[in-house]
Please model this.
Amino acid sequence: MNIATAPMNRVLLVSTLGNRDVTVDGQLIPQDDFRTACEALLAELEHDRSAVLTRLGAPILERIVTWILDRHADPDYRPQLRIYLIASDQEDKRFRHTDTIPAARLLQAWLPHVFDNGSIERVSLWRIDTNPADYDDAVRFYRLLIGQRALPDPREFAAIYLNPTGGTPALSFGLLTVLAPFFGERTVVIYMPARTLRPTPLDVGATYRQFQALDDAMRAIERYDFAHAAHLLRVAMAPLPLYAFAEVLAYRLAFDFRRALQRLEGTVIPASRGTLRQLARREQDTLHRLLSDAETLEQAREPVPDRYPALLAELYGSASIAWEQERYADFLARVFRFEEALLRWAVEHCLRLPTGVDRDDRGRPRSLPAFQAGIAGDPDLAQHVAASPFDPTRPPTRDLLRHLLSLPRLADDPVARTVRESSLALDSLSQLRNRSIVAHGFAPVSREEIEARCPNPLEILGRLVTATGYDATVHPLAMSQQGLCAELRRL
Model:
């Protein structure tokens, strides 16, 4: 039989210890004499070990250890159980008569004697010398064990069992609230009901993981990381409409408005009630408008400036998220998409020239003939373009669009001026974008690299989105984000 120590056969038990956890000759030891009686047995143990161990008993602990060893029995790997007993040894003499440290030392000898097949790897003691009935002292004791690295590495064990049945309620509380989270996902709390032969396992670890996942999901939503939040809400077994709504917002952030609507109308709205239903209905209206605007712009051959602002606000929101999440290459990509779309909007708004991107079979924008005709039909504009190096017979570039906004008669137009000046301020990022992984190279993109060229990029984007009529201080997804957070708090 292979009895080599290996993760699959190593098991850990941590147990609190009370005055009812040790018997002598089948009888409980009176509480007032508990420490004195156990110390006397310890002294006797030195002279007649076998006789003392034969008289001792630990009904609860023996049944727990037997159950654990049976649970991990394997024909090839004998289980190796390491045991930690938590015992009191108070400095205050008024309460020392109830201390369990002498009883723990008796059990340290008794357990390997009873389970003499080599399954008990080691029995160790953790001693609390403050008041074991005080919750603050108990929590501080467990945290001190962690801080002093006195706890075994949970990765070394296939399973970890915590027995809070004995001892004071404060020690049991600390065991569940401090050690259970520390030991993590392999932790099983076991409870020994009265008049039963076998313990009941309680998967408290799963409950902790569920609450942790909910907490992490809340933080992800606060960061607008809806895709990660949806995954965490699934892990936490949150109600279907909640994690589905997080998925809706993740689709919206990806500008996949159609799939967002399908998920919203197919899952969230039918399964939701009350405030969540109201939130979903508002999101439904927003998504329909965004989808309509996006599809109109995709096919536009005439100026449709009213279709841009909501999408520009979405793009600004997406850029601000990328910046806050320190995804600077993604931020750079959004800046240039935002700038290009903003220039198209401004030209359509100020000059009524179509700039749609829908292309024919030859790859030419279908709006180009109307764009050229609009320039030709405006003498001032035709002269302005003729004096420039730009070719209006080709699809309009950012530079051409910016040049159109410098038309002298637009000098006092607040929209044209704001867009033109802000676009020029962002131009310093062009070379970085072209050399980066979002375009044609592998140049580094970091906050430092961006701010060295443009110290306040978000402020510039904010001025631009404000020019379209949107409040740059309010994130376009803020209402849905805050609503989802509120729903989670009600769980």
Remarks:
- The CA atoms of residues 38 and 103 lie 6 Å apart.
- The first helix runs from residue 34 to 47.
- Strands lie at 10-16, 23-24, 27-28, 56-57, 80-88, 120-128, 159-163, 187-191, 200-202.
- The chain has three domains: 10-202, 204-294, 300-486.
